[in-house]
Amino acid sequence: MSKELSSNEPTGPIEERWQSHKFNMKLVNPANKTKHSVIIVGTGLAGASAASTLAELGYNVKSFCIQDSPRRAHSIAAQGGINAAKNYPNDGDSVFRLFYDTVKGGDFRSRESNVYRLAQVSNNIIDQCVAQGVPFAREYGGTLSNRSFGGAQVSRTFYAKGQTGQQLLLGAYAGMMKQSANKKIEIFARREMLDLVLVDGVARGITVRNLTTGEIESHSADAVLLCTGGYGNVFYLSTNAMNSNVTASWRCHKKGAYFANPCYTQIHPTCVPVSGDYQSKLTLMSESLRNDGRVWVPKEKGDKRHPNEIPENERDYYLERIYPSFGNLVPRDVASRQAKFRVDEGRGVGPTGVAVYLDFKSAIEKKGEAAIKDKYGNLFQMYEKITGENPYKVPMRIFPAVHYTMGGLWVDYNLQSSIPGLHVLGEANFSDHGSNRLGASALMQGLADGYFVIPYTLGNFIANTELADVDTNHEAFKKSKEKCEKSLQKLLDIKGTKSVDYFHKKLGHIMWEYVGMSRNATGLKKAIEEIPKLREEFWKDVRVLGENNFKNTELEKAGRVADFLELGELMARDALNREESCGGHFREEHQTPENEAKRNDEDFCHVSAWELKSEEKLDWVENKEPLKFEYVKLANRSYK
Amino acid sequence: MAGAGGKNLNLKLKVWKQKGPNDSGHFLNYDANGISTDMSFLEMLDVMNEDLISNGQEPIEFDHDCREGICGTCSLVINGEPHGPDKGTTTCQLHMRRFKDGDTIAIEPFRAKAFPVIRDLIVDRSAFDRIIEAGGYISTNTGNAVDANAMPIGKAEADEAFNSAACIGCGACVAACKNASASLFTSAKLSHLAAIPQGQAERISRANSMVAQMDSEAFGACTNTGACEAACPKEISIENIAVMNREFAISSLKSRK
Ligand SMILES: Cc1cc2nc3c(=O)[nH]c(=O)nc-3n(C[C@H](O)[C@H](O)[C@H](O)COP(=O)(O)OP(=O)(O)OC[C@H]3O[C@@H](n4cnc5c(N)ncnc54)[C@H](O)[C@@H]3O)c2cc1C
Ligand code: FES
C-alpha cells in the first residue's frame, strides 16, 4: 500500500524553523554522550565532518571507508568550490537568495525547509573551514575571494584553486585524526559495508568485509549514519571515483529504507569527451571554467576546420545566444541538454563529433595568460595530460557526462531514513537539490549535514529512543554475517565466462542510451526489459577469480555491479513513472516549444520514495511526500 | 582497443606479483598488445586484466580511485620511477603516448619498510595517517569559529600555505628516497599550518610530536638528496623540509627550557 510520507519539518516562518526546531529537540547531557556509540559509514565531506563533530561532543564513533585512508574519499576530487551566502562581494547575496536560487535551480522538486536551513548554515561552514586552516583563495588585501557558478547571478563560491574538495576534506580529516588521537574515533579503513543490521526494527549495526583479509566483521552501535556518496557509477562511465558505488545504500534499501527520486541524475556539461572503448572514467572540467570560458560550435554542420581557423562570425556561442542573461553560466541541466542538441544537429566537434568547444581565447586576451593560470592552472594541466592538447592555445573539447545523483535514500528533516536509527547524509540522501543541483552546493550540503545538522538531530533521536543493550552476539548479527558470506561465495562459485566489467559496461550502455540525458517512454520500457535480462546473465555467467579470504578487487567489484544491476531497473521505473520533465530528468514527451523542460506540478509536485515490498524480490511500491512551495512561487524556470 | 586519434603499441610488461606481506614476491612477464596511445596507464592495466580474466589467470592487483591525480591512491613504480617518467604527474594521469612500440615496462609497488605490501602492487600507507594523527591539525571544535574574514591573511601567505597543503599523501616521496624518509610528507603539513595565523597556537607542540611519530615509524632519515621533490606528482617543494627542521629546532629549544 502506498503511503503519504511526513517530512517531520517544523512549521512557522521559514527563517525561524531550524532555530525553533533546535530548541525543541531533546538534548543528551555531556556525560551521557560518552556512553553512546555511533557507526559512520563513509569519510567524504559528510562522513568526516559528522565523525569529527560527534566525537568532539563526546560520542564514541566508529568510522568506515573503502579507501586505505579516510583522506582519500571521493570528495577529495571536488574541484570548483563551495557556496555560502556571505555576501562578501556586496553583490546582493543573502540567505534568502541562496535559498531561492537552490529551490529554483532544483526545478521545484526539493523541500523548502531543508533548503532554507542549508542556506542558513552555509556561512558557518566557511567560518569553520577557515578556522581549521583550509587555504581558500584570497585577495591581495587578505580577504576571501569568490567566483560565480551556474544558476546564480552573484559571486558566492569560495574555492582553493581547482582543489576545493581536497582542501575541505583534508580539513575534516584532520579533525577526525585529532579525535582518533583522543580515542574518540576508531577508524576502520579498507572496509566495505555489506549489510545493515536491524534489531527490533532499529538500525543497530553493520556487517562489513575487511578488504585486506576478506574477513566478514560485525559492528554494533546505537545509531548508524550512512555517508556513502552517490551512485553515478551505475552508468559505468562517470566523473565519480572508481570505488564510488551504491552498495551501502542499496543494502539498506533492501532492509526497508526508501529510495527517493532515483531517476534524478545530474549530467555535467563540461567533461573531457570519451576517447575510446577502453575508457574507464570521465574527467570533469570544473564548472568554474564557465566564468571565463565561452562555449561554442561552428555555425555550419560538419565544419572540420581546426577551431583556430574558424573565424568569429562563423561560430555559434549558443549559450550566450539563447540565454542572454545567464549566458555561459546557465545551470548544468540546461547547458548539458544544449550541448547534446548541438551534437544531434551534426554540429559537434573533434575526432568523434561528440563534443563542443570551451574557449578561453577572449579571457586570455583580456586578463592575460598568467591570471587564467592562477585560477585554473591545475585544470588546464589535467586537460593537457589527458588529451595531449594545450588549452591555452586550442579550445578545450568538452561533452556532458554523468556526475552527481540528486536521488538517494529518503530522509526526513532530521536526516533520518524510513528505518529508525539509520540517518543518511551527503550525496547519499535525496534531500536538498530537487531534480538538479547547482554547482558548488554538494560540498556545502555534505558539510552542513555533518557539521551543523546531525549533531543536533542525532542527539534528539538518542534522547527519545529506548535503546536496548545490543552487541554483536545478537542473533541478527550472526544471520547477517552468514548471509554476506554466502552471497560472496555465490559470486565466486558461478565461474562463468565474462568479467565483471563486461556486465558493468553493458549496463552503463543501457543506462546512458535510455535513462540518460534525454528519456522517453519507449526507451525506458526497453531498459526495464533489458536490465533484468542482463542481471540474469550476470548471475549465470560472471567470472570472479581468486579467493574470498584475501584482497580481491574483482570480488569487490562484482558485489557492487550486482547492486547496480538492480538499481538501474528502479531508476528506469522511476523515470517512466514521472510523466514530466524537471531539472536533470528530461522526458522528451514533456518539453516546451523551445525544448525546455516542462514540469507537471498538478500531478508530480512530490517526492517519489520507493519501498521494496520484500528483501527477496524486486517489487516496489511508490510512497509520496507532497512538496509545498510557500516562499518560492512555483514558476517556470527561466534563464533567458 | 582503438582510440579516437591515437596509435597502437605492443609492449612487454614485467609486473611485481606478491601474495601478501610475508610472501617474497617475484616478477611476472606479460605481453600487452594493441594498446592505444590515448589510454591512461591504468587503463592499459585494465585492458591487461580483462585479458587475464578471459584466459582464467589472476588479474594484477593495483590501487587506484579518482584517476584524476588528486586522491593519492595510485602508487606504482614504473621503470624505477615512482609514478613513472612524467614530471608532476600521478600514475593515473600518465598516458600511453609517453611510451614507444616495443618498450618493456617494469611495474613495481612503492617499496619501503614502512609500506608493507598487501598484495601485488598494493601497499599499506597507514603510517601517514599516524603522522597526521600526531598533530597535523588545528584544534578547533565545530561551532566556535569567528567570521571567516575577521582574520585577513595575505595572498602570498595563503598561496604558500596552499602550495604545501596540496600534498596528496601518495607516498611517492618515500618510495623515491634511498632512505625511505617521510620528511617531505611530514614537512608539507607542518609548513601548511606554520604559514597561517590559525596554526600558530599549536606550532611548537605540533613540530615535536609529528617528527617524533615520523621517527617512530619505519621511515629512514633525510639526507637531502632531493629525490622526493623530483618524484612528487604535486611538485611539493623540498624547502618544506628546511621549514620542518627550523620548526623542530625551535620546538626542541622551547621544550628544553
Ligand atoms: C570530479 C568531481 C568534482 C566535483 N566538484 C564539486 C565542486 O566543486 N563543488 C561541489 O559542491 N561539489 C562537487 N562535486 C560533488 C561532490 O564532490 C560530492 O557530491 C560530494 O563530495 C559527496 O560527498 P559525500 O561525503 O556525500 O560522499 P563521498 O565523498 O563520495 O564519500 C563516500 C564515502 O563512503 C565510503 N563508502 C561508500 N560505500 C561504502 C561501503 N559500502 N562501505 C564502506 N564505505 C563506503 C567511501 O569509502 C567514502 O569514504 C564534484 C564531484 C566530482 C565527481
Ligand atoms: S587514482 Fe587518485 S591520484 Fe591516482
Model description:
- The complex is a heterodimer of chains A (640) and B (257).
- Chain A is of the alpha+beta class.
- Among the domains of chain A are: 267-402, Alpha-Beta Complex (Flavocytochrome C3, Chain A, domain 1); 475-600, Methane Monooxygenase Hydroxylase, Chain G, domain 1 (Up-down Bundle).
- Helix content of chain A is 37%, strand content 15%.
- Chain A is built from 17 helices and 19 strands.
- Chain A has helices at 14-24, 30-33, 45-57, 95-105, 112-132, 164-181, 247-254, 318-322, 332-344, 361-367, 369-387, 442-464, 475-494, 500-514, 521-541, 553-577, 601-604, and strands at 37-41, 60-64, 82-83, 157-158, 185-188, 191-199, 202-210, 216-220, 223-226, 259-260, 265-271, 294-298, 315-316, 356-359, 396-405, 408-409, 422-424, 606-612, 620-626.
- In chain A, the strands form five sheets. Chain A has a five-stranded parallel sheet.
- The mean pLDDT of chain A is 96.
- With 257 residues, chain B is α+β, with helices and mostly antiparallel strands.
- Helix content of chain B is 34%, strand content 14%.
- Chain B contains eight helices and seven strands.
- Chain B has helices spanning 41-54, 126-133, 155-165, 172-176, 183-194, 203-216, 227-231, 239-256, and strands at 8-17, 26-36, 76-78, 81-82, 104-109, 117-119, 122-123.
- Chain B has a five-stranded mixed sheet with strand order 2-1-5-3-4. A two-stranded antiparallel ribbon of chain B has the order 6-7.
- In chain B, helix 2 packs antiparallel against helix 6 (203-216) and helix 5 (183-194) packs across helix 8.
- The longest helix of chain B is centred in the last third of the chain and has 18 residues, at 239-256.
- The termini of chain B are far apart.
- The mean pLDDT of chain B is 95.
- The interface between A and B is large, with 85 and 85 residues.
- The complex binds flavin-adenine dinucleotide and FE2/S2 (inorganic) cluster (FES).
- Residues 41-47, 64-67, 73-75, 77-82, 164-165, 191-193, 227-230, 239-240, 244-245, 247-248, 284, 286, 403-404, 426-428, 440-443, 446 of chain A line the site of flavin-adenine dinucleotide.
